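Below is how a single chain appears once it has passed through the pipeline. First comes the sequence as given, then the structure the pipeline wrote out for it. We keep one example in the README because the format questions we get most often are answered faster by looking than by reading.
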Amino acid sequence: MVELEDDHGYRGTAAARAAGISYRQLDYWARTGLVEPTVRGAAGSGTQRLYGFRDILVLKLVKRLLDTGISLQQIRTAVNQLRESGVNDLAQTTLMSDGASVYLCTSNDEVIDLVSRGQGVFGIAVGKVLREVEHSLVELDSTPAVDPADELAARRSTRAS
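Resulting structure:
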């Protein structure tokens, strides 16, 4: 898995590219609280959000669920389940859906139980998506999270030079 220091992340454009979404979607999802950056949120004009690896993984999962026709309301529920579950090993997690609801399965038994009840229509293996995100981030550089005031001052001094 991509190892980042706690104060490093990916800028919005890199996160959007790695997740396969537009910057506009990324911005909307951050402003509405669907997927907010954990490294650094926007703190006014001149600052940029920084997304961690797990944030980008969740962005890509949201994109996959949208592509399958799941409503944004159900996706919000699924993202909240992921946050609340505290699942650390996402590679062993499968998101299942019956087209109306999304279920978080952390074991093969849960997947089999869901399918045997006739509820599971499709599943997204999070481990596969995780590897796709890793692969897409290999070429991208992470950015250190500096104090937003320092970042703005650095831009101003660059322009003045």
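The chain has seven helices and six strands.

See the next section for the split statistics.
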